[in-house]
Amino acid sequence: MTVKFRLYRGLEIYPLVFPRRPTLSGRAHDYEEGFDAAVRIQEPTVESVPTRSRVFRLVTQSAYRSAGDARRACTAYAEQVIDNCPPDEAFFEWDTGESVSIGTERNARGSPAPSKPPIFADFTR
After folding, report:
1. How many domains does the chain have?
2. 92 within domain boundaries
3. 59, 65, 69, 109: which is deepest, by most CB within 10 A?
4. Is 91 strand, coil or helix?
């Protein structure tokens, strides 16, 4: 599997998409319930230099209908997080205590983003 990322404002964005229902041992994948998503934002990889990264989970009321929808939402969410970082602070030292609201579609049916701002989990702490 090829790991694809997008470079945005000098940071790498890695969409992390997974089935909403975990695959049970000995069973086939179940994509009927849709997909959930998270995104990893990290510094560009340089040989022999450790890179910093942060992972944010996109929490929605309903699952994304396709992996493509989830990947697009990850990219849009990451761009909004990066854009909302105050200019006088470094991204990886910025306390993202406030959630970021994005105005993207949640799924292929064109359902609008929820009225509440999405909640994200910062797994780096």
Report:
1. 1
2. yes
3. 69
4. helix
Q: How far apart are CA 38 and CA 12, in angstroms?
A: 14
> Does the residue 26 lie in any domain?
no
Question: Which domain covers residue 118, as residue numbers?
Answer: 1-21+31-125
Reported for 107-113, long-range contacts at CB under 8 A and 24+ positions apart, including other chains, are: 107/34, 107/62, 107/63, 107/64, 107/65, 107/66, 107/69, 108/65, 108/66, 108/69, 109/65, 111/62
CA–CA distance, 45 with 86 (Å, rounded to integer): 24
Give the global pTM: 0.67
* Residue corresponding to tokens 């009225």: 115
pLDDT (tens digit per residue) in 48-77: 878 888 899 998 888 999 999 999 999 999
In a domain, 87, yes or no: yes
| pLDDT for residue 35 is more than 60 | yes
Tell whether 94 is covered by a domain.
yes
